[in-house]
Design goal:
The chain is 13% helix and 34% strand. It has 94 residues and is mainly beta. Strands 1, 2, 3, 4, 5 and 6 form a six-stranded antiparallel beta sheet that branches.
């Protein structure tokens, strides 16, 4: 089985931290992945991820549906890659 490694399409440095934007081919979905002193897990060196559709955070993505926040926090690099693969597999509602 081949593992895909997702690379950010954009990187921004802000709020004393870093933000990676991931966009997926043939999809309106994207992800914002941040690590700042105020992000969930940022002070521990972990990532926070927001699932986006048409550049807006969505709150009902199946990936985040069991999460009480609008973002998923305390993620390792491996966790981020796993969630990015799940987002890449999502289809938009018609």
């Amino acid at each position: 089985m081949t593992t895909i490694t997702y690379n950010p399409t954009q990187t921004n440095y802000r709020n004393n931290g870093i933000q990676h934007i991931y966009r997926f081919e043939n999809s309106r979905f994207s992800a914002s992945v941040v690590k700042t002193p105020t992000s969930y897990g940022g002070e521990s060196g972990l990532w926070e991820l927001a699932v986006k559709l048409d550049e807006k955070i969505i709150y009902n993505a199946p990936i985040a549906s069991n999460n009480p926040h609008d973002v998923i926090g305390w993620l390792t690099d491996t966790d981020v890659q796993t969630i990015l693969a799940q987002i890449d597999g999502l289809t938009e509602a018609k």
